[in-house]
Design goal:
There is one protein chain. The chain is α+β, with helices and mostly antiparallel strands and 404 residues long. The protein has helices at residues 32-35, 46-52, 106-114, 129-135, 163-172, 175-181, 215-228, 249-261, 276-284, 303-306, 324-335, 339-356, 394-403; strands at 13-17, 20-23, 68-74, 78-83, 97-101, 120-121, 140-153, 188-189, 237-244, 267-274, 290-296, 359-371, 375-376, 392-393. The protein has 3 domains: 1-61, no CATH class; 62-141 and 370-403, 3-Layer(aba) Sandwich (D-Maltodextrin-Binding Protein, domain 2); 144-365, Roll (Dipeptide-binding Protein, domain 3). It is built from 13 helices and 14 strands. The strands form 4 sheets. Strands 6, 7, 8, 9, 10, 11 and 12 form a 7-stranded mixed β-sheet that branches. Helix 5 runs antiparallel to helix 7 and helix 11 runs antiparallel to helix 12. It is globular, with a radius of gyration of 24 Å.
Length: 404
Amino acid sequence: MNEGRVAPEELGVRAIDDKTLEITLREPAPYFLGLLTHYTTFPVPEHIVEQYGEAWVQPENIEVNGPYKLKFWQTGNQLVVDANPMFYEADTLCFQRVSYFELEDLAAVARRLEAGDLDINNNFDGGRKAELDRRFPGWTRTTPGLLTTYWSFNSSEAPFDDVRVRKALAMALDREFLVDNVLTPGFIPAYGFVPPGIANYETERPEVYWKSMSRPERLVEARTLLEEAGYGPDNPLRFEYKHRSTGDNPKAAPVAQANWNEIAPWVDAQILRQDTKVLYADLRQSNFEVADGGWLADYNDPLNYLYLLDSDAGQQNYGNYSNPEYDALLEQASQEQDLVRRAEIFAQAEDIMLQDYPITPMWFEVTKNLVNPNLDGWAENAEDNHRSRWLCPADVGEETTEAE
């Protein structure tokens, strides 16, 4: 429709009246209602867009139907929203203004917490959790989340067009050491792609066969694979690993470098730290050899992860993985109405992908937030969604509860 090849009325979406939207689906989608809570499905005011064009999002023009309205936004600094008087439950909001700050320096975050300038931060250094618990009692919040950290191989270019090379490097990574000694407490080593808490995936989950092997055994097999691929003292394997500058990723990089160098003296892995936004731009352009990345579910369903490796996924298929059998299974699962059978088909697809090693799953994450204990309304959830409209100072929350 966006390309002009299909008329709008053929899209399968129509307004029955001013307050009723009808959507007709081409195939079953058990995750659909959850998908409608994603920002890509939020409505926009047609009359404002027509009046201001692209400038409709400027603070002086914007109209929204949510609890808060944009007041000020300076990239790299802060975003400020004020309560929206047109919101249908505007009288229930506890905060008339909410400010969001762009802060990557976690030391600066701690200083602002001590000064009383922040109530919430949506990240913290997991390795310092015990220290943060001492400094800020009751502030750290973690819960199993729908977030997988996985590393991609650029399989469209040598040497990573050889599955033996991809597999060898995947096997050599010591996930258990990382989780036990380096990363945020609560992380889980990942030997499959889809996180354990996902909905609509009630079946036996596929994992790589070497999960049960000891580390020395993995290293022996990894070296054999690289030798079979033609690498050795006279033809060393040299490559670059890019990683994000945020979260636990900088701490994991030197461990990975050491793990790969343990395979053999002729394996030379160089690491490059990049600004997170720059790295994701490189990933989308396939400008990497091996690179770190992560995926937080947009909706609670295995398709949201497995589609990333579909050959039609575009730039999100970072390493240009393509397997017609994998694509066909995803399409078959999307047509299946029996949720048990659908999950089984997804598992077949994931198993095929894991054996091809376009990626290597590394760990499943927990959510990491710092939250003022004097706030009520914070509810832990796997999606890590925490709307400002539900938050109140603890004393106000208690009074509201009593009034109700």
